[in-house]
Write a sequence for this structure.
């Protein structure tokens, strides 16, 4: 599968490194509105074609699929044009900043019969699969509580995408989305009640927040996210007969299983340093099998995630 990459920024560099670890997949073109930026990226990662226009990349017959790594504000337009060009699309999370735009893209992908996947790489990590397997095998009994944290410190910069409302900034869309996706994956159902607190900073974007969920099965879960303080970025799942510790849950390589007396009874370590490789491999497999949705990140998960994120944004107390 030949990728065309749109948006050669920091996350795209990590993606390009991961592609080198996936057999049968390569990046053949990169595009930016600034040709010199695209050319620099192409030279660095030995990519054949560099374009200064997205449309040129989408017209390239060598490109089978597009990896969209532009800022949130432009996700909708770039994904839409890619789907209309009949290119499979792997788009960085969140698929779009709004429920309306997400619904429109999912519908368009269905109409075009083209593979579209939101790049929620956390859900492709073997460590996360192991935690889910322990839950499914009733290793800790009924799940009672889950908590997860994802926060770091960033200096306030009105020009940065993080602090720009116009560019789709804010902690919820940048990293809170990982927390919500993780909780939905562990529980396997939508929450029946959501309570949220969001702190809006001087640029009118949410700089940190806390969300509490109550699920139909009785589980209560909470997450803390932001870019105004550093947190450990771990997750804990507590059940009636034990617990699961997920280290650095959003990019986890280690999970631990404990009994009710806090004795370590099992663990899993993943040697892969760049977890992007799992997401890319799965997307490529779905494309190779002529699927229009990926089995680990199907459209209904993106839709549920978008609906919940919208609810938090509209109902969060400030």
């Amino acid at each position: 599968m030949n990728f065309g990459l749109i948006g050669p920024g920091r996350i795209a560099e990590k993606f390009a490194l991961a592609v080198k670890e996936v057999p049968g997949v390569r990046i053949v073109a990169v595009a930016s509105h600034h040709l010199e930026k695209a050319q620099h990226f192409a030279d660095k990662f030995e990519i054949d074609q560099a374009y200064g226009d997205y449309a040129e990349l989408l017209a390239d017959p060598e490109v089978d699929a597009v990896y969209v790594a532009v800022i949130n504000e432009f996700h909708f337009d770039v994904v839409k044009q890619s789907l209309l060009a009949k290119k499979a699309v792997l788009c960085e999370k969140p698929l779009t900043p709004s429920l309306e735009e997400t619904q429109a893209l999912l519908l368009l992908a269905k109409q075009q019969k083209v593979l579209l996947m939101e790049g929620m790489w956390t859900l492709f990590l073997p460590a996360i699969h192991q935690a889910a397997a322990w839950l499914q095998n009733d290793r800790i009994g009924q799940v009672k509580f889950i908590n997860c944290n994802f926060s770091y410190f960033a200096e306030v910069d009105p020009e940065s995408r993080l602090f720009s409302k116009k560019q789709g900034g804010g902690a919820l869309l940048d990293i809170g989305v990982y927390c919500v996706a993780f909780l939905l994956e562990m529980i396997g159902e939508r929450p029946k009640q959501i309570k949220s607190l969001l702190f809006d900073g001087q640029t009118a974007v949410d700089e940190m927040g806390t969300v509490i969920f109550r699920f139909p099965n009785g589980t209560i879960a909470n997450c803390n996210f932001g870019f105004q303080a550093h947190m450990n970025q771990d997750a804990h799942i507590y059940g009636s007969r034990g617990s699961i510790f997920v280290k650095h849950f959003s990019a986890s390589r280690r999970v631990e299983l404990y009994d009710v007396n806090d004795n370590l009874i099992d663990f899993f370590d993943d040697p892969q340093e760049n977890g992007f490789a799992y997401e890319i491999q799965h997307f490529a497999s779905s494309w190779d099998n002529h699927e229009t949705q990926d089995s680990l990140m199907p459209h209904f998960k993106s839709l549920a995630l978008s609906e919940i994120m919208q609810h938090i944004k509209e109902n969060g107390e400030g």
The chain has nine helices and 14 strands. The first strand starts at residue 2 and ends at 6.
